[in-house]
Amino acid sequence: xxxxxxxxxxxxxxxxxxxxxxxxxxxxxxxxxxxxxxxxxxxxxxxxxxxxxxxxxxxxxxxxxxxxxxxxxxxxxxxxxxxxxxxxxxxxxxxxxxxxxxxxxxxxxxxxx
Length: 113
What we know:
Layout: H1 2-23, H2 27-56, H3 59-80, H4 85-94
């Protein structure tokens, strides 16, 4: 859906801004980009907008929204890991793995680029 494309675009913006902040040693820009993604994009807009899909949507719509939400949670936890390693690792471990070949720990998983 258009909303799924939008949130994935916003995740990409957060990744780009976070990596730019690391490159420039402006860690406050990293945390601001991550915070904005989690609070304003993911929680305020995406989750609130997909409630209708999860309650009354068709199975195909629900599966697409679930997949997008999983991807966003995965990206968000990877982004925040350098700043909140213990909390992000605990939350990431509670996400079901999509496949057996997934990384066993957030510590050794690749950082989003």
